[in-house]
């Protein structure tokens, strides 16, 4: 992965001359968002910089094993503190999102209005124009992969410590579904080899991330597949829809539906999957595609005020759940030839 040399020189100078640096990622942070934030935080702290992570809302509990000792400011809860930091920072690193509103309502205005230099490190398509410097590669497996090359370009391979390597590996591992998609680049595996050489225990990470479900999460998974999976064999599509009452019944916690949408694609002949979750103020949709010929990023942008990747994307809707179901089923039947 080649990064612009002039941008790297510019960032080196900006970091050297900065007093306050903020790191922010997207609302409902996943492992790639958390891993890249922690990896960059550790790198900047090693440079003796004053740096703060703003996490818009809590991350999934299965990431506690490597993230609990890292200080973070919760943007939705400590809103004034978070926004003051954004407005007073010299640099704001924006990680794992391509649109300002993705950080959530509590912090988006402060991020947009901050005079800080906004540096994007990301792997989503079509980033907005609000960022001053971009290190964005849609062909990368994850934002953590882009971050690893960013750190090496700034300070060389040796600058990545074990703790940074672990955070980076977790992001790559989870954003590829344990290397089952979006990972056909030999460069990704070369980087993973370097991370293992730094001391990362891949088997331990897999155990912590994938085999530490709470009882409620496991029961929610079983209920979702047994009772809520709706399949359209004729249209090669399937979806799961969970109401807020159902989520409440299983004591839903952030991260409990992580990976649930992928079960739709485990069905033979199904190439499009969707997970619908009803929250208190908004309905969230996660889209997955098994084939490159159907771009769920464009689908999410066109119909659901969202975006993401060609084979993995998301969207939102403010309104009634039944309207979402009616619209989605109509879209599935309309898109038969594309899916």
Notes on the protein architecture:
The protein is an alpha/beta fold and 339 residues long. The protein has 13 helices and 12 strands. It is globular.
Compile the SSE list and pairings.
Blueprint: H1 5-16, E1 21-25, H2 31-46, E2 51-55, H3 64-67, E3 72-74, H4 79-88, E4 91-95, H5 108-113, E5 117-122, E6 133-136, H6 143-155, H7 162-175, H8 186-197, H9 202-210, H10 215-227, E7 229-232, E8 237-242, H11 244-249, E9 272-278, E10 283-289, H12 296-303, E11 307-308, E12 312-317, H13 321-334
Parallel strand pairs: 1-2, 1-4, 2-3, 4-5, 5-6, 8-9
Antiparallel strand pairs: 7-8, 9-10, 10-12, 11-12
Structural class: alpha/beta
Output the helix-strand order.
HEHEHEHEHEEHHHHHEEHEEHEEH
Helix content estimate: 40-55%
Global Rg: 20 Å
Output the strand order for the largest sheet: 3-2-1-4-5-6
CATH topology of the largest domain: inorganic pyrophosphatase (n-terminal core)
Mean pLDDT equals 95
Spans of at least 5 consecutive residues whose pLDDT stays below 50 are: none
* General form: globular
The top-level CATH class of the largest domain is Alpha Beta
Number of helices: 13
End-to-end CA span: 31 Å
Tell me the count of domains.
Answer: 2
Q: Number of DSSP strands? A: 12
By CATH, the architecture of the largest domain is named Alpha-Beta Complex
Give the DSSP E fraction (strand runs of 2 or more residues): 15-25%
């Amino acid at each position: 992965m080649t990064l612009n040399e002039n941008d790297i020189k510019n960032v080196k100078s900006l970091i050297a001359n900065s007093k306050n640096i903020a790191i922010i990622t997207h609302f409902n942070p996943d492992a790639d968002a958390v891993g890249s934030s922690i990896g960059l935080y550790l790198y900047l702290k090693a440079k003796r910089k004053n740096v703060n992570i703003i996490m818009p809302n809590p991350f999934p509990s299965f990431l506690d094993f490597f993230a609990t000792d890292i200080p973070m400011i919760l943007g939705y809860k400590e809103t004034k503190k978070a926004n003051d930091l954004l407005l007073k920072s010299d640099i704001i690193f924006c990680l794992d999102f391509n649109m300002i509103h993705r950080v959530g309502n509590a912090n988006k205005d402060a991020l947009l209005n901050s005079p800080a230099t906004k540096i994007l490190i990301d792997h989503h398509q079509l980033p907005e124009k609000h960022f001053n410097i971009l290190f964005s590669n849609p062909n990368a497996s994850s934002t953590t992969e882009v971050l690893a090359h960013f750190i090496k370009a700034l300070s060389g391979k040796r600058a990545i410590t074990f703790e940074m390597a672990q955070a980076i590996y977790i992001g790559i591992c989870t954003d590829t579904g344990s290397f089952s998609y979006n990972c056909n680049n030999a460069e990704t595996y070369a980087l993973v080899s370097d991370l293992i050489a730094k001391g990362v225990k891949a088997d331990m990470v897999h155990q912590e991330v994938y085999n530490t479900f709470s009882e409620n999460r496991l029961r929610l998974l079983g209920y979702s597949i047994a009772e809520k999976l709706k399949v359209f064999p004729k249209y090669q599509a399937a979806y799961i829809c969970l109401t807020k009452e159902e989520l409440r019944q299983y004591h839903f916690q952030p991260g409990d539906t992580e990976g649930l949408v992928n079960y739709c694609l485990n069905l033979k002949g199904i190439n499009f999957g969707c997970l619908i979750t009803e929250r208190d103020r908004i309905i969230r949709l996660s889209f997955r595609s098994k084939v490159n010929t159907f771009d769920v990023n464009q689908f999410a942008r066109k119909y659901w005020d969202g975006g993401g990747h060609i084979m993995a994307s998301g969207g939102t809707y403010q309104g009634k759940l039944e309207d979402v179901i009616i619209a989605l089923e109509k879209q599935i039947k309309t898109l038969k030839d594309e899916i």
